[in-house]
Design goal:
Number of strands: 24
Helix content: 10-25%
Oligomer: single chain
Strand content: 25-35%
Order of helices and strands: HEEEEEEEEEEEEHEEEEEEEEEEEE
Shape: elongated
Length: about 400
């Protein structure tokens, strides 16, 4: 006869236990796989954000330094990032214990894109014509900067360009240095063509003139003197007319690119031509956040040594927080050999808080520029996130010698 007995209770319980262990193991494996997938996706997002932002900043600095024969000016503000006010705040007192904001950099170059198509829209003009010098400076612009709509160039219709925001001027007859201690007649290598960048107030396309309001904040960069001008009229009468107007001088439209970090939304900001319009390159509250941007400039000294700018000041070791931290640094942007760029990027989400003994563990972030150390439980960073530092070095060995700013 056939044995019709079924499973005993013990056999059934053992089978259920084994099956439960298998399900539990598969669930744990699936959860681990999902966790690993999230961590990998988070790391990929951070890498894409950090590397793309770093590459963009690097390329702008490198291209600016490679524009041989064109003027290059650089404005660096240690801790100069603020929401809605790039390069406006200055914090150069940080020694690792104070929360220094991210740095800010403005790269100013002559617009060499003009004049690349058959000579139309020239990059420079051979003379600077002043129609009115006070109280508002009025300059005559070249008519080729205002081609009529529909004009044909190589068979294509030319679109009239946007009126210039920044104008650059440089003298081919005079040498200047913003360091008053430099004698240009005896130290030509320490000087360059006298030059200035001015912010335009309005452009009259009918008369093809540019008006620059009589305010010293319209002077963006200059190498006439190492102190601020008392008034715009002082600048015009004492230096601009004397060194630029009536001399063999050039005028060009100038391009400016400003990088800063919005410390509230954790976004890398970019402003073109100092026009007040802010665009966002990377980061954000719903994306890997840009927590810090730090810049360190390595200057080549005449004795073969290196001076560092953008680090805690230790003057005896040639280390300074900003270009304005010591009189010896005035006008030394021309000596920059390399620029170190650091980005601190935070993950969008808290993948998993690191716990030690039942509490949230605190990570230490090593030195970035003028920040010696920083803890991840700091209010500006947030605990439980993943943090990565992205860094690169830009070499400016082919930097143009005709510089100011």
């Amino acid at each position: 006869m056939k044995d019709n007995r079924g499973f005993t209770i013990i056999e059934l319980m053992v089978s259920i236990a084994i099956f439960s262990l298998m399900i539990t193991g598969m669930t744990i494996a699936l959860m681990q796989q999902q966790k690993h997938f999230k961590l990998t996706a988070t790391a990929v997002d951070m890498d894409e954000t950090g590397r793309s932002a770093l590459d963009f900043i690097s390329s702008e600095i490198r291209i600016a330094g490679a524009r041989q024969g064109k003027t290059f000016a650089l404005t660096f503000v240690n801790g100069g990032s603020q929401p809605g006010a790039p390069c406006a705040a200055v914090n150069t007192t940080d020694a690792g214990t104070v929360d220094s904001p991210p740095d800010c950099i403005a790269i100013i170059t002559w617009d060499i894109t003009r004049g690349m198509q058959g000579g139309v829209l020239p990059s420079v003009v051979s003379s600077v014509e002043v129609i009115q010098s006070a109280p508002t400076l009025v300059l005559q612009l070249p008519n080729l900067w205002f081609p009529p709509a529909g004009q044909l160039l190589n068979g294509d219709s030319v679109t009239p360009p946007t009126p210039p925001t920044l104008l650059g001027f440089r003298s081919r007859a005079n040498l200047c240095s913003p360091n008053s201690g430099v004698d240009c007649s005896g130290n030509i290598k320490d000087c360059s063509d006298c030059g200035v960048v001015l912010r335009v107030s309005t452009v009259n396309t009918g008369s093809q003139t540019a008006e620059i309001a009589g305010s010293v904040d319209r002077i963006i960069a200059q190498n006439f003197q190492n102190t601020a001008y008392a008034s715009f009229s002082d600048f015009i009468t004492n230096d601009f007319v004397r060194l630029i107007v009536g001399q063999f001088s050039e005028m060009s439209i100038v391009k400016a690119t400003t990088f800063s970090v919005n410390s509230t939304t954790h976004e890398l900001q970019i402003e073109q031509d100092l026009n007040g319009v802010i665009d966002y390159l990377a980061g954000g509250s719903n994306a890997p956040g840009i927590m810090d941007l730090q810049l360190v400039f390595n200057l080549q000294d005449s004795d073969g040594g290196i001076t560092k700018v953008g680090v805690p000041t230790v003057a005896v070791d040639r280390r300074f927080s900003d270009f304005g931290a010591d009189p010896s640094l005035v006008g030394r942007q021309k000596d920059i050999s390399t620029v170190e760029i650091y980005l601190l990027v935070r993950s969008e989400i808290r993948p998993q808080k690191i716990t030690t003994g039942g509490r949230v563990g605190v990570k230490t972030i090593t030195q970035l520029g003028d920040r010696l150390t920083r803890m991840t439980d700091h209010a500006s960073l947030g605990e439980g996130f993943i943090y990565r530092i992205y860094t690169t070095t830009v070499y400016l060995r082919n930097l143009a010698t005709e510089q100011f700013g």
